[in-house]
Write a structure and sequence with these properties.
This protein is α/β, with parallel strands linked by helices and 228 residues long. Helix content is 24%, strand content 26%. A six-stranded mixed beta sheet has the order 1-2-3-4-5-6.
């Protein structure tokens, strides 16, 4: 039986588009994948409440990687709901320091100085995860029959979540803004392509990207060869 994933689409700063969070309900409570930017906290909280997610029911927050648009509300939700935070160890330093370039290829000094001005990832947003994720991590104790896939490329600690029924939450490996494709922002494109190759042979049905609408994996593959 397929899971029910509610898409919560939130705006990003300076008209950078939208970012998705995914709320999943199980018998054990709720699980949230990613948290949006800190600038959209009210919108996120309203969406959680509207969909029956309370502080007591939100058991786990899984962060697909350390970027501000996915982790901006993580510390707040833990402080106010008591939810546990799960993030891959390779991106944990991004949450701890607020440095979105940690562990990545370094941009020029102008870009590095400007990015903190619009991320709104201040000291109150910083955190250390309660759970350090790794490849193969089992999420079934938290009510989701799924496992974590390590998929570096966008960042060293980028992950995907593959359910037993074929739903694939890919973080920023893919986007679907103008059509399904690899994310346009990759720290290491070659490593990203290697991560994509890991998906061959998996029984994926629906892909839930960090940006853009969910898409049918089989239909998308008809006009898009993943290895290219």
């Amino acid at each position: 039986m397929s899971i029910m994933a509610i898409t919560i689409s939130l705006p990003m700063p300076v008209r950078m588009g939208q970012v998705n969070c995914y709320l999943i309900e199980s018998k054990e409570g709720h699980l949230l994948i990613d948290t949006g930017c800190s600038t959209t906290r009210k919108e996120l909280l309203a969406a959680l409440e509207r969909n029956g997610c309370t502080g007591e029911s939100l058991r786990l927050i899984v962060l697909t990687h350390g970027d501000f648009d996915h982790t901006g509300n993580a510390a707040y939700l833990r402080d106010h709901f008591g939810s546990r935070l799960a993030l891959h160890a390779a991106d944990a330093g991004m949450g701890e320091t607020g440095d979105m370039f940690l562990g990545r290829k370094q941009p020029n000094i102008l870009v590095r100085s400007l990015v903190p001005l619009f991320t709104r990832f201040g000291k109150s947003e910083r955190f250390l995860p309660d759970i350090l994720l790794e490849d193969g991590f089992d999420l079934s104790p938290f009510g989701l029959n799924a496992r974590v896939l390590s998929l570096p490329g966008h960042s060293r600690g980028s992950i995907g979540i593959m359910t037993n029924t074929g739903e694939f939450f890919c973080g920023d490996l893919f986007e679907n803004v103008k059509g399904p494709t690899l994310n346009s922002l990759m720290d290491d494109p070659q490593v990203a392509r290697e991560s994509l190759e890991r998906l061959r042979g998996l029984q994926i049905t629906t892909v839930y990207p960090g940006h853009g609408a969910p898409f049918d994996w089989v239909k998308a593959a008809e006009g898009w060869v993943p290895s290219e």
